[in-house]
Amino acid sequence: MHKPTISSVIALALLGCGGGESGGGSQPAPLKYFTVDFLGTGTIQASDKNCQVFGYSPESSLGIKDTVVAYVTQPINTTSVQYEVFIHNANGGIVKHFTSIDLKVNRLRFTQSTIPEDGYLSFAYFQSSNRITDVTTFAKSVLPDSFAIHAEGNRNSCLTPSGANPQIKTVSGYIQRMSGTDLLSGFNTSHQNLDEITKNYAKDNPDNKAINFPSQQHPLLALNYETKNSRITSLKGFKFTPFSQRGVQGSPIVLDPVDWTNGEWTSPAPENFIIQNALLFVNGKKLLSNANYAYLWQPLSLDNGSFSYAASIGDENYYLYLKGRQVANGQPRYWGVQHVAQGTNNGVLNADNILDKFPEQPEIKIETCSHSENGQCITIDTGDLNAQQGIQRVLVSTKRQSNNDQSIRHVFYTPIKNSIPTLKFNRTNIDDKLNTNATTFVSLLSTNVKAVQEAFLYQHQTLYSANAADLSVDAIPLLKNIAAQQDQQDLLKRQPYTWVWLEQEAE
């Protein structure tokens, strides 16, 4: 799931968030536009093609992964499948409808004022062959000014160049080992693969022996970890260093000792929250200006324990990363949780009260309401959260009341709100009330960091054989290449937020 800038011939970089166009002073404010690029995706096996990479397929039994690439396309328009775009008002009524005829283009551009305040922009696949409609809808206030979105269409040449992809190579470095035994020496990197943290560390490594590791050409964090029974217990020494200064034989990197290794780490109350992973990251920018990334500082115990602290990092540059789940207390559905807390307080890490503002047992319903042109709204229990405190993704999959053969799978991205109107689509077979017996899913992201809210829009894409039953995956996702995805994942390790999503006990 979690599954966050792009160099391309089209404007895939997010340039900011949408919204109003008003400005002060006597000069009229320049018009602001939304720019939408339509991209199809496909897989290739050859690794030498000059293509930007957007993802990888799961590894086959032969250890082979297909590469997912993207290409500029015009949205599909056949007798069985149509791709259309809608602008809706706050009540779900249609303001503007871009039909398949209007979309004989690979880019859509219109003034932001075309979408009413509190209005919506929707992208829809209408499939007559299986009578399924897939829709992804964005509230105006969460839209980036420019973005790319998935659209099936004629396949063209892939987006280039391959130079936009992460450039990773295996290099070597030398670290002067500090005193002690059972020490691991190694280099932590930006965008590090955390599945096998110790894979490229060397135990009790002599100063004149090289340590080999993969990295992009970004600054590095050289370090020594103390271990016990093959488990990392504390960080003993560290040094941020430019990529080009990795030490040489006879002149290894000399580490700085941490101030102490017994900083207090207080985990959430176990009766409310089960921790599945706990990591401490640091931003190295205070010590090395271009080390403005999230670097793994150390893995933490899953219950109360200790961590290593160095004042030179800066208290505000420590980030506690937790992943886990709400205690279900016998309920079939509960929150999965990803949480990042910024800073230390007098050398103490604290992650209590993570779920206080969230509803204990989330509910989503389709109910009659007066502020929808269809007469129905999707209501969400959002606890003590409001629109100023974050963003949400809501999915409803159901059938139409008067046409039980016609189903819709509708994803909404909006500010956190407890009611969303159902929408009209200029089609008599689906412009009808929804069956209230629906499959539902919600995820809430609580943060006031706009860049994190924007990254949230991209966390629900699977570009290879997406399983329609997977409620965490968008049928029509926003797209970014893998380099931009890595940048977003880096951001999600060094900004404060709490992200929750529905999970369900296996039957």
UniProtKB/TrEMBL annotation:
Gene designation: wbfA
Record protein name field: WbfA protein
